[in-house]
């Protein structure tokens, strides 16, 4: 229970944090690039892997779908190098064992992501592998954003204590269930885009996510309106949710109705689909950050209660610091 209270066991390293933030931002761009590949039906524009038209280093003419597929590969290679840097740098400067493990986990995830991307080409875009590739990209984004968050200066500050930590266990459970619901919904969205499932499961999932996110946001803002570490991500989350619902409706119209008889993907369908995928990634990572903050503040409250047990005369306003 104390792993999130050891923020002060490692010094704040501004350069390491900024490098991790840049890497996380590049991963977000990679998700957008992947959505551009899928939306433009460019997945097999480069027919071989790990080479591109037989070469490991030569850049092919970036025309047609090749510019999307090969551009996606080049960005993925850059992010692979950045992730190696993050993993190694974390081992050097971060004293927290769990952060070092997270650094290696990020590296393992990006390697697995690259392999899945290659398999989608070698096996001619099978829905199951393509869906796994898209899902792992979202998971990798969450890992990198979490690492950026854990290395931030704000994480070093002592968290505001939650009142009645036993009651807040329910909020922690709700936040974890919401993360799982959003993650599962993104899997169904990827499966639909890759023709693995029909639209109905994705629509049902959207309704479940809408209910879960609203429930989490309402409870969080009602109980902790003056705690910015909780209120801010909750407000951002509900805003992103509304955008995501609107983008989903527009994407459905553009994909199913406007593009039904088109010989090639229309620009309207590409733009709305890519925006929908990008916003979905932001919804997921914001839910993860909110869940982390809820868990951290809960741990602080539990730790303070345990510290008070042997000495009931402790000042009620004392602050727990790692």
Give a short account of the largest sheet.
Answer: none
- Weakly predicted, low-confidence segments: 313-322
Radius of gyration: 22 Å
Strand content: under 5%
The geometry reads as globular
Cα separation of the termini: 12 Å
The count of strands amounts to 0
* Secondary structure tally, helices: 9
Average of the residue pLDDT scores: 88
Helical content stands at over 70%
The run of helices and strands is HHHHHHHHH
Content-based structural category? mainly alpha
Helix/strand layout:
Blueprint (H helix, E strand, L loop, with lengths): L13 H26 L26 H28 L3 H26 L4 H24 L2 H4 L8 H29 L5 H25 L4 H31 L8 H42 L14
Helix pairs in contact: 1-2, 1-4, 1-9, 2-3, 3-4, 4-6, 4-9, 6-7, 6-9, 7-8, 8-9
Please give a structural write-up.
73% of the residues lie in helices and 0% in strands. The chain is mostly helical. Helix 1 (14-39) runs antiparallel to helix 2 (66-93), helix 6 packs antiparallel against helix 9 and helix 8 (228-258) runs antiparallel to helix 9. The two termini are 12 Å apart.
Keywords:
322 residues; mainly alpha; disordered C terminus
């Amino acid at each position: 229970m104390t792993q999130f209270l050891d923020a002060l066991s490692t010094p704040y390293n501004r350069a390491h944090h900024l490098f991790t933030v840049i890497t996380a931002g590049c991963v977000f761009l990679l998700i957008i690039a992947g959505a551009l590949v899928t939306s433009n039906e460019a997945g097999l524009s480069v027919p071989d892997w790990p080479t591109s038209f037989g070469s490991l280093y030569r850049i092919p003419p970036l025309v047609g779908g090749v510019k999307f597929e090969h551009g996606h590969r080049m960005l993925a290679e850059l992010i692979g190098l950045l992730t190696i840097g993050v993993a190694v740098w974390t081992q050097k400067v971060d004293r927290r064992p769990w952060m070092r493990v997270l650094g290696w986990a990020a590296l393992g995830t990006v390697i697995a992501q690259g392999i899945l991307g290659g398999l989608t080409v070698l096996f001619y875009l099978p829905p199951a592998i393509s869906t796994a590739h898209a899902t792992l990209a979202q998971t990798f984004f969450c890992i990198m954003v979490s690492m950026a968050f854990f290395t931030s200066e704000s994480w070093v500050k002592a968290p505001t204590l939650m009142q009645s930590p036993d009651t807040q266990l329910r909020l922690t459970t709700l936040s974890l269930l919401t993360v799982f619901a959003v993650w599962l919904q993104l899997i169904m969205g990827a499966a639909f885009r890759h023709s693995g499932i029909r639209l109905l499961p994705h629509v049902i999932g959207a309704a479940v996510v809408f209910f879960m996110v609203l429930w989490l946001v309402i409870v969080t803002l009602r109980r902790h309106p003056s705690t910015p570490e909780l209120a801010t991500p909750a407000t951002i989350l509900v805003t992103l949710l509304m955008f995501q619902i609107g983008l989903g409706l527009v994407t459905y119209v553009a994909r199913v109705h406007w593009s039904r008889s088109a010989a090639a993907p229309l620009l309207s369908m590409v733009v709305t689909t890519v925006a929908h995928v990008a916003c979905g990634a932001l919804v997921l990572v914001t839910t993860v950050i909110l869940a982390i903050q809820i868990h951290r503040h809960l741990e602080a409250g539990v730790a303070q209660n345990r510290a008070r047990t042997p000495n009931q005369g402790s000042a009620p306003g004392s602050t727990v610091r790692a």
